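Key result, reporting period 2: structure in, sequence out.
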């Protein structure tokens, strides 16, 4: 049985957005197995995210990304329920990741974007990143409009 430490709880909490006591309880149930605990907590978080899907998303931000060579850029709209969450670092980081993904992978629309493998971690889909932030913030989050422009296209 692996030891359930404060560092392990903190690490899993940061990656899943789950409450500390819930994280500790799940870790104890799986005998300290990090991978099993993360899988359980993410599944529970995604179930909560689907319950929020019908909430209105009238706030958010518009974020841009320009590739280092200056020849490709994207602009995305990321929507949430409140201005408070729109100003949150976790939300803004998600917006930046999605803008970079859009510039790199040139999805045709938002639905295609959500189904793409995340360029920084191909084992995860963009949709999973969004659901993780929904779990962390407690608000519905949706990708709004996306656009990409490249020199010569």
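The corresponding designed sequence is given below.
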């Amino acid at each position: 049985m692996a030891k359930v430490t404060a560092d392990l709880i903190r690490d899993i909490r940061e990656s899943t957005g789950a409450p500390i006591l819930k994280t500790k309880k799940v870790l104890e149930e799986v005998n300290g197995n990090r991978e099993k605990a993360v899988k359980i907590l993410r599944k529970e978080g995604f179930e909560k995210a689907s319950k929020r899907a019908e909430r209105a998303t009238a706030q958010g931000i518009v974020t841009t990304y320009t590739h280092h060579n200056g020849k490709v850029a994207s602009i995305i709209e990321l929507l949430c329920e409140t201005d408070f969450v729109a100003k949150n670092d976790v939300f803004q980081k998600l917006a930046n990741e999605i803008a970079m993904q859009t510039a790199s992978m040139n999805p045709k629309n938002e639905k295609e974007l959500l189904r793409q493998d995340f360029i920084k971690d191909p084992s995860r889909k963009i949709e999973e990143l969004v659901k993780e932030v929904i779990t962390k913030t407690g608000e519905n989050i949706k990708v709004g409009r996306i656009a990409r422009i490249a020199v010569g296209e």
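DSSP finds seven helices and five strands in the chain. The first strand starts at residue 59 and ends at 66. This case is discussed further under Risks and Mitigation.
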